[in-house]
Amino acid sequence: MKQILLITDGCSNVGTSPVLAAAHALQEGIVVNVVGVLDYGTIGELGGLEIKEIAKAGGGIHRIVGTPQLAQTIQMMTRKTVVQTIQQAVNKEIHQILGGGSLKELPPDKRSQVVEVVDELAETSALQVALLIDASASMKPKLAAVEEAIRDLMLSLKARVGSSQLSVFHFPGKHSGEAVVNDVNWTSDLDGVRSMFSRLQMKGATPTGPALLKVIEFYRYGTLEGNQSWRDHSGPEEGMLGDYVV
């Protein structure tokens, strides 16, 4: 199972729409979940709306939290999304077997057996989580909470029976036109993830859409440079991936 877990305060302002990028992720079989760490006021309201739309387009869930609740929220969302993904697959199979029926139509004893299978698969299925961190200037005060959240997420992933891997990205990159940086490749090593925070520089704009597209590319090819057609362009484009600037 593949997930992108985006941590952001919303209000992307460079490049492709993050909502359209999330829709492309879902087409690739990658669920996009979003945790919003928002400020109060108009900017926070706009960011919250964007966060909700990104998660909806990506087939995932979203939560708006303050920094103290960030770590617990990320663990809960990852767990919940795994269960939901498996439930969707099981319900699809049941729908076909029953000729259009649903899990609710099963007898109580059979239904409880299916729920037990779903819970077991949630713990044993292989899981990959690409953690995408908004490192724009407005997120700087929240960095310590993000670090704690990632540490707790890694501990919870390691406690699963099934294979769990985490890859970490941040955006924007150091250089002009660099939408995203891959800080940690697929790993189950907690120490390797911790070391990335000493290298993070919180600055710049918020190219959330281009960053999402690059992570999709990483899932596809194992590199951020695998397919030139995914590159974001400075000029206007036509179609679904046209430039989106707030």
UniProtKB/TrEMBL annotation:
It comes from the Bacteria. Residues 128-246 form the VWFA domain. This is VWFA domain-containing protein. It comes from Paenibacillus solani.
